[in-house]
Amino acid sequence: MPEPATGPPRDLVVALAQIPARPAWADDGAVEANTKTVRSLYEMHADETDLLVFPELALTGYIPLKGYDQRRKRTLSSAAEAATGSSLPGLLEATKGRRSVMVVGLMEPAAMRHEFYNSVAVLDDGRIAAVYRKIHLPVEENHYFMPGDEVVLAQTRAGLIAPMICYDLLFPEVTRIAALGGAEIIVMVSTWLDIAHLRRLGEVLPVARALESHAHVLFVNGVGDLEARGHRFSLYGGSRAVTATGEVVAVADGSEGVVVANLPGADLDAASEVFPVMRDRRPELYRPLTDPASTFASLKTDPADD
Which CATH number fits domain 12-271: 3.60.110.10, 3.30.1540.20, 3.40.50.720, 3.30.1330.10? Predict the structure, then answer.
């Protein structure tokens, strides 16, 4: 992991680009159209912000929630190649000499033919600072994506960024690893449907992750509609910026648009003043989290097993 930058943390201006993404599995022109939207919004805000974040799979759109379909998977494999082969170079060029770091979601080809990742790229002044591949894949995504296997930190002009994707938000282990690496900003891009419990998670977990990680958290959700097994669902938006002290400084509604927020650098230092959790950790006791041979693995949960 990269070394944290030296010197006191500075205040940041961040932008959350809450946009719909046309699905490449159903629209041959989706990748090109989505890329134009991303680039246009970036160029509008690139000199007034330090960091501009787009939702999960912003360049390619989401998968078809209709069960596994080999034909659609091959279509998406081609979309992944287009996103990395033509879209990403153009977006890299757009960031050269501009103030703002871009974080954007896309499908990324894997080494195996017709396999790809749910990824997010961090672009900084014409270079790829990092690419993160989604580690935790919920049902349906398992049919299409390869899982990532590494928590990533990107050293950028905006600070040390830990990009993550959607379902990863429910796993505090991921953000804790990033925090131990010195992450200053946890960027969580998402495609969450307008379902009550997902709304609650999107409201509560960014604050929890900020407080327990002593890092700013940006949660950027999409908007628009998705088709799931013959039904139409809306993405609820609700993107938000949370400082390292747990203060929600910006919240988007359910419409398309860009929300701008200020993240005080002083909050990164103030976050540990109440509970210095990084200092007080006792990792020697946490082995049951990763050791399948621990005593917890053998506990009986069904009385019928007695």
Answer: 3.60.110.10
Got the DSSP string for 34-70? HHHHHHHHHHHHTTT-SEEE--TTTTT-PPPBSS--H
Q: How many CA atoms lie within 13 A of 94 on its CB side?
A: 25
Predicted TM-score (pTM) of the model is: 0.92
- Looking at residue 293, what is its pLDDT? 62
- Taken in order 265, 261, 137, 204, is the CA torsion positive or negative? positive
pLDDT for the residue numbered 303 = 47
- 193 forms bridges with which residues in the sheet? 235
The two structure tokens encoding residue 292: 């399948």
CA dist 56 and 17 (Å) reads 11
Partners of 185 in beta bridges = 161, 216
- Cα torsion through 150, 155, 160, 161, rounded to 10: -50
Domain boundaries, the chain: 12-271
The amino acid occupying position 175 is: T
Tens of pLDDT, residue by residue over 281-306, are 999 999 888 887 655 555 544 545 44
Evaluate the CA torsion angle 43, 106, 205, 180 in order and state its sign.
negative
Rg (CA), the chain: 19
* Strand positions, DSSP E, the chain: 12-18, 51-53, 101-109, 116-124, 127-133, 145-146, 154-156, 159-165, 185-190, 216-221, 223-228, 231-236, 240-242, 248-251, 257-263
